[in-house]
Write a structure and sequence with these properties.
With 747 residues, the chain is α/β, with parallel strands linked by helices. It is 39% helix and 18% strand. It folds into four domains: 301 residues, Queuine tRNA-ribosyltransferase-like (TIM Barrel), CATH 3.20.20; 197 residues, no CATH class; 61 residues, Nuclear Transport Factor 2, Chain: A, CATH 3.10.450; 98 residues, PUA domain (Archaeosine Trna-guanine Transglycosylase, Chain: A, domain 4). The structure holds guanine. The site of guanine (GUN) has 13 residues, from helix 6.
Length: 747
Amino acid sequence: MTAWMSGQRDDPTPCRESDRNKFEVVARDGCARIGKLHTAHGVLETPALLPVINPNIRTIEPREMWDRYGIQGLITNSYIIWKHDDLKQHALENGVHDLINYPGVIMTDSGTFQSYVYGDVEVGVEEIVEFQRSIGVDIATMLDVFSRPDMTEDDVKQAVETTIERCEASLKAAEHVMLNGPIQGGIYRDLRKQSAIRMGAFDFSIHPIGGIVPIMEKHRYKDLAKIMLATIGELPPERPRHMFGCGHPMLFSMLIALGADLFDSAAYALFARDNRLLSPQGTYRLKDIHSWPELVPSVVDWTPEAVRKLNDEDRTALLARYNLEITLAELSRCKQAVHEGTIWQLAEQRSHQHPALREAFLWLTTRPFPSGLSSEFLQDLVQDDRDAAREHHPNGGIWETDWSQVVSRQAIQRKKGERWGGEDTLSRPHIITARAHLQHRWRPSSTGPTDVLVLNGKPGPWRQRCDLLVLRLKSVLPELEILVQTPLGLLPYSLEDLNPFAQVDGPTWLWKRRLNTVLLREEIHRLHINADRILILDIGQDSLIQEASTLLIKHGLLEEPLQVDDSHLPQLRDDLRRRQVVDKLVVLANVSYSEAVDLVESCTYIIGGTGRVKNVIDKHGNHILSPRLADGGLSITDRGSMTIYGRRSTPVLDDKEYDPYAGSGHGPPLLVVEQDAVEFVLRGRNVFHGFIIKCDPWLRAGQTCFIVDEHGTLIGHGLAQCDADEALRFRKGIAVRTRSDFSKTFK
Ligand code: GUN
């Protein structure tokens, strides 16, 4: 019988002893991750909301949370249990799971929040952790010191220090039980960082971000974003991050996009008691509701009017269910967005729901001034603008480094088109990364002054419309750089099918927009083109070749119309194809330009039905590469990986100063695995965490990497599931999805 028919759900299966307390990431979108925390009371899938249960007032029974809503974990307060003799007795005798009648994962808090609300608590630092252990909680919390936003910097510093001083004793008292190590630091970036770095050095299982309740209550979402940005990058990546006391669904997408894994909140019950309805669009008052903002199961049989007439207890119970269902639905939406790679788009949509959230979102994603500002530029600004500019300046702008960590974690190529969402689209982190990759890796064929022709006015694919024109232009003006103007920026013609540039879903006028001359020059400069004359050709016109001739003659690039002598076309077409493969190797596989040219020079091609390159064949007849039609990417075959790796002369790099944007030219990153894993990888099995010895610093989730053994022999290649800093730290989960099977290819 299914759960909904019986109204019951089976109790969880305890994880394997060896997996207990381990966290693995199973899917991701930049910093956002779908994870699994393995516990004695089952798996807690993240992102998750742990509803707060007050053992004295149960608005919704914990068992119902398990049975009806499938909630895998909740949080209750050990201090409240400890203070009430009957609760304490029951918990000590039968355990906390029995006390609250819940079979899933139970996290407990320590009384810190009570000390923030009511002043001091009477319990000792070790005492409260020992108590949590003795009642059988899955995840305990140490007694941290709450840092309020109104505290002076010195007082906050003291709160951070005292919390750190308590770590050792707390961890000792916890023994084998997972322990939360909360991060404090108020609104001070350095203190948050200090707290994250120093707490992260202890053996905690989870890091909650504490002291944020008063910030959220006052809608100071920009401060919340700053706290996240300051903290997340400093924490050990293999531990879940929990937002203490955060349960408003409106905030989930932005916080998940920044790396939050867990939320807890009493909001569903507190708001219900106050006749308020939660929603990802903000909060509603029951008295204003004519029609349910979302028709969730708890209210399908009820009108708002009928609910208003209920007695207090029944109304609170019904609204609490409504709020919980809404909260779970938004969390589910966020998870789907992470799987789809659209979590920042969801955050962008949600940001419109509250002015303070919009402010936070814009603060994160948009730069008021271009980076690399000169001091003269700064002097010309009014004071406010100068402060804003400094805040984002890479040298003086303290937040730029934190934000660039978020940006650099983005997987660039997506399977789907990019939905245009207004100018915000250009600030999506993966778009910033895609542009940065292109601009840092791609190189024009000539470094000298070159004329540039920008094709403008129509969405792709451009090859059908423009290939003939481009080939004829190349026959008379071989040095001319031809670029395509996309809504996401300029794209070299050789990369005209590259996702996301080539696949923007938006109104057709987007392709007709023209950049002003200054911005156009700036964009071209970013592609390292030393532009002489810049011409823009509207490719929406019918007689394209004629229009192009007229334009080029007018600007003195041609003296007479383009002659139609197509005898060179096959050779020129071959050159263009070669250039396409070279540029993809450079931009997508991080191969240096000269290596790529050398590699591709002696290759031949198999052309598909659409006239595009299907397979690239080396001089020995081996199929080494295949351009992907769906996303303009490049698949490397087993033989291809051997060929590319064979050209690499450096071992794994250990460059702490590595610039995540800059291609090093060393090809796909290397990942060195332990001998135990070698025979499995050779047979095409995935690489698991725990077997990795080292890797190149440019390893990024979603990109191709090469797998080598300890002696530097290539044993496979695949799609990385983690970034370099995570490869060595995670203890569970897949690190690389292997795409090769050397046991068959090299029999
Ligand atoms: N609940 C909400 N905020 C906090 C915090 O900062 N620390 C602890 N322990 N619990 C909290």
